[in-house]
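Figure 3 (text version): structure tokens given as input.
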């Protein structure tokens, strides 16, 4: 099975929490097919608007939000109020362990590389063509 990369959007404060070691798990409401993911590239939303680095997915935890909070809440980079607000109305959630974090020396401006670039609402699988167009292959 050929692997793909994943591009996710996160807010600037969550990048800061990752860099400070307070966020060791990325939370998602939607499942990601982790068996085919090589690297997860991090797009930081405005005002940054750049792809700033990547990581690999370590452990994957799936469960009801209360279970997820008990297992990874202290390493999610958010307080309990924000955590449960994020998962409100969802029976299940996902926590992806962040491993092999790599921050680029020069963040990548996707708007200057791909015409009509739109950041993913949550995540998007990216193949080799888009990875090449974004300049991600040289950023590994």
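Below: residues designed for each position.
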């Amino acid at each position: 099975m050929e692997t793909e990369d994943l591009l996710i959007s996160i807010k600037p404060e969550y990048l800061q929490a990752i860099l400070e070691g307070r966020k060791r798990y990325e939370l998602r409401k939607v499942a990601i097919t982790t068996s085919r993911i090589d690297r997860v590239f991090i797009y930081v939303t405005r005002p940054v608007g750049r792809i700033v680095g990547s990581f690999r997915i370590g452990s994957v935890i799936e469960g009801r939000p209360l279970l997820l909070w008990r297992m990874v809440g202290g390493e999610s980079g958010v307080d309990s109020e924000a955590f449960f607000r994020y998962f409100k109305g969802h029976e299940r959630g996902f926590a992806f362990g962040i491993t092999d974090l790599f921050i680029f020396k020069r963040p990548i401006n996707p708007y200057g590389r791909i015409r009509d670039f739109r950041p993913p609402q949550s995540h998007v699988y990216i193949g080799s063509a888009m990875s090449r167009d974004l300049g991600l292959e040289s950023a590994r």
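Helices lie at 12-19, 65-72, 80-86, 128-134.
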